[in-house]
Design brief:
35 strands, 434 residues, three-stranded antiparallel beta sheet, 6 helices, mainly beta, 10% helix
């Protein structure tokens, strides 16, 4: 069997990782305070104290104590004035705070009384205490300790210290390795993977090291081992033909196995062939026998065993309806006594009703619907005066339903083989007339 749509992909059995590095970012400077009034006044705080549990910590900053001068500044948190000669104040991240206003942005613990001088900074530029830093820190998947440093490794939805990100088999560091394998749910370096888990080539039975290889029908090949069995040339194309479930190069397939177009006699390679009367054609070679244009429709007509496009068929070949005299192109049609009709044009010759039924009657050499046939052309029962559609009995030139031909005394139905008498009072069965 000839096929062509076979994909060969170079897919290394490796996974990549990324190293997340959180670097110092520019913290926005505090807003410019309004001009200081000459006399003290009460202000609303300009710091919004919204505790956040999902803030990202950027970098560490150091507290710089203010020098006591006669200068008057504003506290970044409460917005009130700081007198450098009277108040105990703190400068952090280019912002000034009263000592009692310098608190953790998450748990709001007062940090002004601590001996620590270095704190992490959240997205809003506020300080983070050590307790909240550990509570929000990522956990290393190897040592299960908090990751408090800025540089760490994120791999397969887990986080690692850089010194913990090692091969699980040889303990070599994987920091500088681009491709990392996962084997038995464990991290594996290239050397351990090649030594312990590398696949074998289907042709030479040698191990396939990390890198590119070819997969075909579930088997793996070295790139140079995947060859055409007819000419032994290496197949390097991503798409290639096959014959009898074996790969084949383009040249061998065209010369030995490709189907030939019935029109141009050239091989049919990548295109989908059009099959008509057991012959194959290129799509551009399959043409109308009237106008010789390519037939692109999935449905087409024939004329004298030749394909015909819909336009030519409708214009030159399609029959005309004997009722409306319009062309019958596609769809169903009704053939009656050698004449063709549209389904909606085939009507009863007596009441003009459209006859959708597959069975109909003929009367006076015209098609007749069931209602008109029963009404005008079926015999009537001499007893009940209804139409007789099935078997009936005839007596003295009159027709009777089988159930209407009965004894006048006992109402017994008289069968066609049964003896009866014709009396003045009516028909009598053999028992009543005896």
């Amino acid at each position: 069997m000839n096929t062509y749509q076979n994909l060969r992909r170079f897919t290394p059995e490796t996974r990549t990782y990324r190293e997340d590095v959180v670097t110092s970012v520019r913290v926005p400077p505090p807003p410019t305070p309004p001009p200081r009034p000459l006399v003290p006044e009460t202000r609303q705080p300009i710091y919004t104290n919204n505790p956040s549990s999902d803030r990202v910590y950027k970098t560490e900053l150091i507290i710089n104590p203010l020098t006591r001068t006669s200068r008057v500044d504003d506290c970044f948190k409460c917005g009130r004035m700081i007198n450098g000669q009277i108040d105990n104040d703190i400068k952090f991240n280019n912002r000034n705070y009263h000592r009692h206003c310098f608190t953790c942005s998450i748990c709001h613990e007062n940090l002004g009384l601590n001996t620590e001088t270095t704190y992490l900074v959240d997205d809003n530029g506020g300080p983070i205490c050590k307790k909240c830093q550990l509570a929000k820190a990522k956990i290393c998947n190897v040592c299960q300790q908090s990751i408090t440093i800025e540089r760490y490794v994120h791999f397969e939805e887990h986080d690692y210290h850089r010194e913990c990100f090692n091969c699980d088999y040889c303990r070599r560091s994987l920091i500088d390795q681009v491709n990392i394998h996962i084997q038995n749910s464990k991290r594996c370096c290239n050397q351990c993977f090649d030594d312990k888990f590398a696949s074998q080539c289907y042709v030479c039975s040698q191990k396939i090291p990390s890198g590119r290889y070819t997969t075909y029908k579930g088997n793996k090949y070295h790139l140079d081992c995947f060859k055409c069995p007819h000419c032994q040339n290496v197949i390097r194309e991503m798409e290639f033909p096959t014959y009898d479930n074996h790969p084949c190069c383009e040249q061998c397939y065209q010369e030995k196995f490709a189907s030939k177009c019935c029109q141009c006699l050239k091989p049919i390679i990548s295109e989908k062939a059009v099959i008509y009367q057991d012959n194959k054609y290129h799509p551009d070679c399959f043409r109308c026998g009237q106008c010789y244009r390519p037939i692109i429709e999935s449905r087409f007509h024939t004329n004298n065993s030749k394909p015909c496009c819909n336009q030519c068929y409708e214009k030159n070949i399609a029959p005309q309806c004997q009722q409306c005299f319009k062309t019958i192109t596609v769809g169903k049609s009704v053939n009656y006594q050698g004449k063709i009709y549209h389904p909606d044009c085939f009507r009863c010759g007596h009441c003009e009703k459209i006859m959708y039924e597959s069975k109909f009657y003929q009367a006076d050499n015209k098609p007749c619907c069931r209602d008109c046939h029963e009404k005008y052309f079926t015999p009537k029962c001499a007893k009940c005066n209804r139409s007789i559609l099935e078997r009936y009995t005839t007596f003295k030139g009159q027709n009777y339903h089988i159930n209407c031909f009965v004894c006048s005394k006992c109402r017994h139905i008289i069968d066609e083989k049964e003896k009866f008498y014709d009396e003045k009072i009516g028909i009598l069965c053999a028992q009543c007339g005896f």
